[in-house]
Protein: N-acetyl-1-D-myo-inositol-2-amino-2-deoxy-alpha-D-glucopyranoside deacetylase
Amino acid sequence: MSAPRRMVLVHAHPDDETITCGGLMARAVEAGVGVTLVTCTLGEQGEVIPPSLQALEGSPDLAAHRAGELDQACAALGVTDHRLLGGRGRWHDSGMVATGEGIRAAAPADLGEGAFSRRADVDLQVAQLVEILTEVEPDVVVSYDATGGYGHPDHVRAHEIAGGAVEKLDPLGDRIGLWATAAAHDEVEAGLTALGRRAWLPLPVPPVADLPTVPDATVTVRVALGPARVRKLAALRAHATQIRVFDDGREPPAFALSNDLAQPVLAAEHFVLLRGPGGAAATLGALSA
Structure:
């Protein structure tokens, strides 16, 4: 197996890249793979966790602060090529509403001008991503599945434009592997069970049914993080407005978002091949070798 030459990751907001792909990016950088991160918005609608920073919530200053967090996370992962889709401020966070079904979300009723998930803008967004992919010439593109992982409208749109851009550049599907991030059900469940035994953990652990997982058998590639998980934890800590990290040296470490539910930072990240050449699975899997 040979590692990919160049990889582009398309994510909706700062912190999404680290939660789902931080280990993959760190391992790719270590392997000499060219890594380009495309972030579509600066997460302007994000909730802010630390009391010392809560004045940023809903403030026009939040975007700049989260951009700084993203810079720190990229530095922790070793990623030096980072782009904002369409340039800074072109697209903003659409926001979301809870569905009441575990950790799952849906689009708000009203989307303002410039909201990333507005239907009218999808063709322009695809064109902007095509421009980046044409320059970078990746053999691997990573984003989300059709549900956006947990339903956030910006994640769904990132999936749509990643797929649209790859199809335009590789209509026969024989050059570019298009991948979706995933969470393997049984590994997540084992991690949650281990966290449930940690009496010191100050937050509740959700049932696995509340989390967006996929059957383990549907995962195409499991990328073992090894020492790269240390870099992923550092990148998670960099997103301080959005994430709390709990690590006492026992397995697994944990993180929590603004919902105050503890989730495991697993020793592997999981990916599903959506489209691409037959050897694409071996190519991405080489990063675990």
